[in-house]
Design a protein that fits this description.
Length: 262
């Protein structure tokens, strides 16, 4: 699934060039964004569900950013996108497993909403756009546009928080599947609002609201319950006892569970 989604994401860029270019550039950007966002979301979901150890996740972060930045430098957004998204998914997963509880996750949703809005309108993001716009090529995932031109973009950190809230929801008993779907769907909504207002808007405020919407009743009633880590198996006794070493606890970063109905 991961490889297929990554190939579909890369293929979305040349495929978008075959689309008739709409007369409205905003429509062209939105169509190209939607074409690439679907495989991008599936690609990220695959990384979040895979049983990957922490060291491998850390390696994905380092290599993903390095190769993503290199592809951006070479002006190859189709190759940069999967590398940057992979790095963001791995980073968000590494951070998400340390969430102490659901109410803390809700607090983080409100906090990033405010910080991202401040950064875009008054803070570092605004300063980068005005002073060194070329730096954005490395900090953004650039999506295609119908007709083949460069389209809209999302920050790498937007994908980090998508992964962070999804993994955090899974380990605290919240609705991680519904949350992931609504949070991913908030990206084109944010893009549509930005186009309608004809100005750049932060993506994390709607992402945070989507997380809260998916889990509002659970947070209000009981706040969710953090999942207990799986207990170590009881060593066998007698002649059938295993003689090999017991894997150390925490040797694999918990993946987003696939058997949950949430």
């Amino acid at each position: 699934m991961i490889a297929a989604a990554a190939l579909a994401l890369v293929a979305a860029y040349p495929l978008s060039a075959w689309f008739p270019e709409p007369t409205d550039a905003r429509v062209a950007s939105l169509l190209g964004f939607l074409l690439a966002m679907v495989p991008a979301a599936l690609f990220m979901a695959g990384i979040l569900r895979a049983p990957l150890p922490p060291r491998l996740l850390g390696l994905i972060v380092v290599l993903g950013l390095a190769l993503g930045f290199l592809a951006a430098y070479l002006e190859m957004p189709a190759l940069a996108a999967p590398f940057k998204i992979a790095a963001a998914a791995a980073a968000g997963r590494l951070l998400g497993v340390h969430v102490p509880g659901p109410r803390w996750l809700a607090f983080m949703a409100g906090l990033v909403l405010l910080i991202d809005a401040w950064s875009v309108f008054f803070g570092p993001t605004k300063a980068i756009v005005e002073a060194t716009p070329s730096l954005l090529e490395y900090l953004l995932v650039v999506f295609p546009s119908a007709g083949g031109s460069v389209g809209a973009a999302l920050g790498v950190t937007d994908f980090v928080f998508l992964a962070f809230f999804t993994v955090g929801s899974a380990i605290t008993g919240l609705r991680h599947r519904l949350g992931f779907t609504l949070m991913a769907a908030s990206f084109p909504v944010s893009l549509g609002l930005a186009m309608g207002l004809e100005r750049g808007l932060p993506a994390l405020p709607l992402l945070g609201l989507a997380f809260l919407l998916a889990n509002a009743d659970l947070l209000a009633s009981r706040g969710g319950t953090r999942r207990k880590p799986p207990s170590a198996p009881t060593p066998a006794t007698g002649p059938t006892a295993p003689t090999g070493p017991i894997p150390p606890a925490g040797s694999t970063t918990p993946a987003v569970p696939t058997d949950s109905k949430k």
